[in-house]
Design a protein that fits this description.
14% strand, 8-stranded mixed beta sheet, 296 residues, 8 strands, alpha/beta
């Protein structure tokens, strides 16, 4: 287990990586401030936080994973041309958290609203966002020209028990104000051999800052026990060209879900990585695959 402290070290590194004696000034490497976002009113009455970058066409909307947000999806669009719209689902960041139980239909409505307001013709969904994108296309098969599903976690059956355990642990740690416990949960997404590196500590600082400031809504817990769609046959009418990206060895995002999703979509390309932690171990290759596909 990592020795997390709050606040974390100012240079994004564990203290044990510092020299035992300070022989000169250290300016540190503070976390880069997040760019300013805006709250957008949607037709279904839920205010959602978004960030728009780039300009021109095509317009692509990016949907994050459970407990993540804009900061985690931005690297996936770094080489994508045109205007890019990153947003936070309900219950995340500064987005509203309406009362009542939430479903993938609600998440699809959030995604559809942001896409419609921006005039997006392409979409990328990560994990939870991939589930919302799946539901949106099942209900509106002609909505996008191109779609990327990165680490899909759910199709027509609920997610593994590990997903419910993770979000429950994360919500409990945030509610208790226990930054160390929060860091322990989110560090599980990172390959073990990289967890004590400066880049990982910088990432954890950013995630901790956001989660401890904004929190997560308790309504997200029930989503881990739901399926995105009723029947994968509902995807037979989807007209978008699709790219499905999965990986083996990821308990939260089983490769079989990616394989089933690609098989259910009429026009889908499938790529499965050999091991988890893709964003840390295969980032350049991943960004290239996504940009080549969405820029086509």
């Amino acid at each position: 287990m990592m020795d997390f402290r709050w606040p974390p070290p100012p240079d994004g590194r564990p203290d044990r990586f510092r020299p035992p004696v300070t022989r000169g000034p250290q300016t540190g490497r503070p976390t880069i401030p997040a760019p300013p976002t805006e709250l957008v009113a949607t037709p279904h009455g839920v205010e959602l936080e978004q960030l728009v970058t780039g300009e021109g066409t095509p317009v692509t909307v990016f949907a994050h994973g459970l407990g993540s947000g804009i900061a985690e999806t931005r690297p996936l669009g770094s080489a994508v041309r045109g205007r890019k719209v990153f947003f936070q689902f309900r219950g995340h960041g500064q987005s509203a958290a309406p009362a009542g139980a939430w479903t993938y239909e609600d998440l699809a409505r959030d995604l559809r609203a942001i896409a419609d307001l921006a005039g997006a013709t392409r979409a990328l969904g990560v994990s939870l966002g991939a589930g919302a994108l799946t539901r949106l296309l099942a209900d509106n098969p002609g909505r996008f020209d191109r779609a990327v599903f990165f680490l899909p976690a759910v199709l027509d059956a609920p997610r593994p028990a590990a997903a419910h355990q993770r979000i429950t642990a994360l919500l409990g740690a945030i509610e208790a104000g226990d930054a160390g416990a929060v860091a322990d949960v989110i560090s599980q997404e990172i390959p073990a051999q990289m967890r004590n590196t400066p880049s990982v500590w910088a990432f954890l600082r950013q995630r901790l800052d956001q989660l401890m400031r904004d929190g997560l809504a308790a309504g997200l817990t029930d989503l881990a026990e739901q399926a995105a769609i009723r029947d994968r046959a509902d995807l037979a009418a989807v007209r978008a060209d699709c790219l499905v990206i999965g990986c083996r060895g990821d308990d939260l995002h089983p490769a079989v879900v990616a394989e089933q999703l690609a098989a259910a979509l009429p026009n889908a390309e499938l790529h499965v990585y050999d091991r988890p932690g893709i964003l840390w171990t295969q980032r350049a290759d991943l960004r290239g695959r996504i940009s080549d596909f969405l820029n086509g």
